[in-house]
Amino acid sequence: MGRVSSPAQSGSADPAALGADWLEICRRIVAAQRAIFDEVRGSVARTVYEGVGEGGDHTLVIDRRCEDRVFAELETLAAAGASFLAVSEERGEVGFGSGGEVRVVIDPIDGSLNARRTIPSHSLSIAVASGPSMADVEFGFVHDFGADEEFAATRGGGACLNGEPIAAAPALEHLEVVGIETAKPERIIPAASALAGEVYRFRSVGSIAITLGYVAAGRFDGMLGLRPCRSVDAAAAQLIVREAGAEVAFGEGSLADAGLGLEERFPIAAASSAAGLEKLLSAQGDSAAAS
User: Fold this and answer.
1) What is the rounded distance in angstroms from the CA atom of residue 146 to the CA atom of residue 234?
2) Which of 14, 21, 94, 107 has the smallest C-beta neighbourhood within 10 Å, fewest atoms?
3) Cα separation of 93 and 208, whole Å?
C-alpha cells in the first residue's frame, strides 16, 4: 500500500507522481509535524496568526509550519522528476514540474481548532488523485495525532489502520453511534430531531478526516456534516471509507461531481450501509433548511 500502479491512468497523469511511495512520504511528514507539536505547546503559543490562507480561513503560524513540512517533501519528489498539482488549504494550488492531471490534496492540520486549543484529536490528511474529482483519488492517508493512529487506503486495495485491514461496521436497523462534524449549535437541533429514534448516540471529534476514519474502522456507524466541507477536509478519508466498504455522499451529486479544487464546497455524509446513509442525508437536508 502506498504506491499507485493502476494501468487505467492515462496521458497527463504522471506515473512518477502516482508511483511514488506515498505511504513513506506521509510518514516522514508525520514525524516532522510531531516535532512541531512537541515544540509549540499550549494554547497561547499555538494561537499566533499570520493572515488568511487560500482556503479562506485565518492561518495560524503552526498551520503554515506544518504545511511547510508537506511542501518540503513535495519539492523533493518534484526534484526527482515527478509532475503534479498540489491543492493545499493554506497555499492554494501550486504546480510542480509540468503540472498535469495528478493532484495532491493536502490539509496539513484537519481539526485546527482542536490543535490550537491542545485538544488531541487533529490530523494530517493527504490524498493523491489521477484527476480532478473525488472519484479519481487513488491514495488516501490520515494520521490522527491524538491517538497516534494511521488510516490509509489505495483504490481497489482496501483500507488499513496502522497497517491492518479494516472494515466498516455491519449494517444495523438503527445507527448506534454517529459522528457529527462542523456542528454549529443552530444546526444540531434540527438534525437531532430528524434522527430521533434512528440514532442512539452522537459523538463529535472535531476533525472530518478522523471521523470518517472511525466510520471506516467500524467505530462509528455513520458521519454527518452539518455544513459544507472543503475538498481538502475529505479527499483522503472518503477513499478510506469507501475502501472499507462504507458509503459516502457529497450532496446529491456523484463522486465525479465533487471536485478537488480549493474553492469546492459540498455537504458530506457517510454510513456503513446505504439505508443508514439515506437517513443521514435526510437529516442533513432538514438541518440545512432550518438554518
Assistant:
1) 19
2) 21
3) 21
| pTM attached to this predicted model | 0.92
- Of 123, 124, 45, 56, whose CA–CA distance to 91 is shortest? 56
Phi, psi of 147 (to 5 degrees): -90, -5
Residues, the chain, total? 291
- DSSP per position, 128-148: EESSSBGGGEEEEEEEETTTT
At residue 268, the 3 state secondary structure works out as coil
Query: 46: which residues sit within 8 A by CB, 6+ positions away?
Result: 40, 60, 62, 115, 116, 117, 118
Domains and CATH numbers, the chain: 15-164 (3.30.540.10), 175-290 (3.40.190.80)
Amino acid at 203: R
Question: In 3-state terms, what secondary structure has residue 179?
Answer: strand
- Provide block-wise average pLDDT over 10 residues at a time, the chain (291 residues): 55 86 98 95 86 60 92 97 93 93 96 93 98 98 98 98 97 91 86 92 96 98 94 97 97 94 94 95 83 63
**Residues with Cβ within 8 Å of residue 268, at least 6 apart in sequence:** 208, 223, 225, 228, 229, 234, 238, 248, 249, 250, 251
Q: Which of 107, 244, 113, 120 is nearest to 182 (CA)?
A: 113
Q: Tell me if residue 279 falls in helix, strand or coil.
A: helix
Task: Give Cβ neighbours of residue 259 (< 8 Å, ≥ 6 apart).
Answer: 132, 133, 134, 231
* Cell numbers found for residue 112: 485546527
Contact 2, 18 (CB under 8 A): no
State the cell numbers at 218.
467500524
Nearest to 23 by CA among 185, 162, 177: 162
CB 123 within 8 A of CB 66: no
Return the closest-CA partner of residue 18 out of 30, 3, 35, 8: 3
Give the three cell numbers for residue 183: 456542528
